[in-house]
Structures are given as structure tokens and as C-alpha cells.
Amino acid sequence: MKEFPISGEQEQPHKIQNLSELLHEPKEDYSRVIAEASREELDEGELSASYSHTWDRFVSRHKIKDEDPRLVELFKKAISGNVLCELGGAGGRMEFLAANMDAGLYINVDKYPNGIKNDPKPVDPMVGVIKQRDFVVKMSGMKDVVLIEGIHDEIHVRADMLDFISRLKDASVNIVINGIDSEVIKVPEYHELLAKEILRVTKKNGVIFGNMSDSLFILKSMIKKSPELKDQFEIVEAKVGAGGAVVIHRK
After folding, report:
1. Torsion angle, alpha carbons of 203, 5, 225, 69, to 10
2. Band of the pLDDT at 7, cuts 50, 70, 90?
3. Rounded CA gap, 221 and 215, in Å?
4. Is residue 140 very low, low, confident or very high in pLDDT (cuts 50, 70, 90)?
5. H or E stretch covering 166
6. Reduced to 3 DSSP states, what percent helix, strand and coil does the chain have, rounded to the nearest 5?
7. Hey, what long-range contacts does 111-114 have (CB within 8 A, 24 or more apart)?
8. What angle do CA 160, 182, 216 make, to 5 degrees?
């Protein structure tokens, strides 16, 4: 079984007190492409978060024993005590995985956190407000079977994901993105810029993963073609879900 060694001496993860600790002034202005993508959005309707179900085995301590031990090891080493940032997470299903992997902080970024465009009761952004979650989920009717358990901090940010990620500091987070394809965002340049920013913000010894997202397919192609990126990032062969899953490890 291949292991994912952690390079260098490891310090205790810093507990983030405020989102501003992770942010800086963006180096690039993406306002043009963000505006273009916004004009091309679906007029209305519900945005499905079903692609997140690919990772269900990783959100349950009851099921995780049946998963690929290489991925379990990689996720735990990358996420435990650190930040997991979900892009386009709607209601934030990956918080279950964050809890199970003992994340220090889970960030969910979505323009439409209820999963519905033109929601008459939109969720206000919680920028700057980090809340602690004591997360315990037990199997119905079986009190002793704990599915998910963990204490972590969480924050939900109502924002465009490209604008938000451009404001994250270099090498600061782990990234997960599910189901953000050309049907959701119809401007190819948006996905290309998002891929570039994901590479920049992913922490050393960190992980990028998700399912059926154009930016992840772009990342795989970029890494395969670039010797420089191959030295920094490793595409992990992961048999998860129906075949659209991508896992990338930053060395």
C-alpha cells in the first residue's frame, strides 16, 4: 500500500480565530469573467448537490472501513487539524467529511447556499463569524453505532467561488468541489481560472478532490503535461463512485 509521507517537521495546526487570517488582497481581477459567468447562469431552479454522495463512505466512521485505505490515510493526514474549503457546496454536505477527518475548520462557499437561485429567503453571509460544531451523528435505533463524530469550526460564506478563492492566501487550505461543470457554469474560462487558483491555494501535503467538476479535469490535464507541476502535485488513482472522481495530492 502506498503511503503519503508528510515532508518536514510538523507543527501543531494553528487554530484560526477569524476568516481574515486566511485572506489577502487578490492578485488578479476576475470581475469580467465572473460577470460573464453570472449572465450565463440558469434563470431559476434548484441546483443539485447529488455529486457529493460519491464521498459518502468517507463521511461515516461506520462505512469508512470499506474504503480504499490509501485515500483514508491521505485525507486524514491532509485534513486533520487543517482547513477544508468546499467550493459550490450548497448546503455544505462535505461538513460531514470534515468532521470525520477532524478538520480544524470547514469553509463552505456558495452564491446560493440553499441550492436555489432567486431564493426568496436567502441565507445571509457569515463572513468573519466562525462557529464551533460538536458533531455527533448516530445510527437510528442503534445508540452505540456512531456514524460521524468530531469537534471542528465552521463558516458558511455567500460568495462567488472564483472571487473568494482569489482572496485566499497561498498554500493555505485543502479543496473539495463537486458537480461544478459546464451545466452549472457555462463559461470555460471561469473553470480554467478556478483550476489555476485551486493549485495556488492548496496547502503543502494537502489534497484537492471532488467529483464531476470541470476545474478538476483541467487540473489533471495541466499536471500530466507539466514536469514542474508533476514535481509538486500527484494525481492519485482513486476508484470512487461512477468514475468522475478526482483526487490530487500536493507533495
Report:
1. -100
2. very low
3. 10
4. low
5. helix 161-166
6. 30, 25, 45
7. 111/158, 111/159, 111/160, 111/161, 112/47, 113/156, 113/158, 114/90
8. 75
Q: Which of 101-110, 148-157, 217-226 has the lowest mean pLDDT?
A: 148-157
What one-character DSSP code corresponds to residue 248? Answer: E
Locus of grid cell 487540473: 219
Q: Which three cell numbers stand for residue 39?
A: 449572465
Residue type, 245: A
For 102, phi then psi, to 5°, come to 60, 45
- Ordered strands of the 207-211 beta sheet: 131-138, 146-157, 105-109, 83-87, 174-178, 207-211, 245-250, 233-236
Walk me through the domains of the chain, giving residue ranges and CATH numbers.
26-250 (3.40.50.150)
Q: What is the pLDDT of residue 1?
A: 37
* pTM > 0.90: no
Phi and psi torsions of 233, nearest 5°: -130, 145
CA dihedral 226, 230, 231, 237 (to 10 degrees): 180
Distance CA 147, CA 191 (A): 34
What span, in angstroms and rounded, lies between the C-alpha atoms of 178 and 213? 6
The label of the residue with cell 462535505 reads 94
